[in-house]
Amino acid sequence: GAGVSQSPSNKVTEKGKDVELRCDPISGHTALYWYRQSLGQGLEFLIYFQGNSAPDKSGLPSDRFSAERTGGSVSTLTIQRTQQEDSAVYLCASSLDGERTIYFGEGSWLTVV
Amino acid sequence: ELKVEQNPLFLSMQEGKNYTIYCNYSTTSDRLYWYRQDPGKSLESLFVLLSNGAVKQEGRLMASLDTKARLSTLHITAAVHDLSATYFCAVYQMEYGNKLVFGAGTILRVKS
Q: Please, are residues B32 and B45 in contact by the beta-carbon 8 Å criterion?
């Protein structure tokens, strides 16, 4: 596609429910990143994929968070048993291997009530 | 741990004025990024600086990188209202897991 595509754009969920956030990177981009942006916390790194593998999962806040990437393309970020502190914008980014520019999607706005 | 500090965090300026946003980082890096974010929107890539002494300009914005001082600047010339946004610098570190570490952001408001 023309840019990084994320869905849903907005999600309101009840505390304790699971949510899945999807990212479609730019076609051909091998590197994919998930970030979280919340008030008072700035932009936090969550996870990085090179192809389908995630060499760095250090940013995942807890074991309720998981992510996968299939076919070197689409990635899903799953949050289990959501808590109110999970409310944030979840941003996905991608880049072409060897290319310097990293492109961000529009984000998925998650609100846990 | 890589730390990235921006200042100022908030900048209110008059149209037509010049100002500089500073970005300091704590360890060596071979890439520094500047992004713009409008309210409710995602991050727009402005500049990627790859080497010591790199300078890039786009319109009224000019970014520079001093890797020895671990400092990047984003200079705004003759500000206009349309430049109002939040500006982030970010440092890329392979040793820290191929990720961008972001500064806190500078909220820029240009008053007519």
A: no
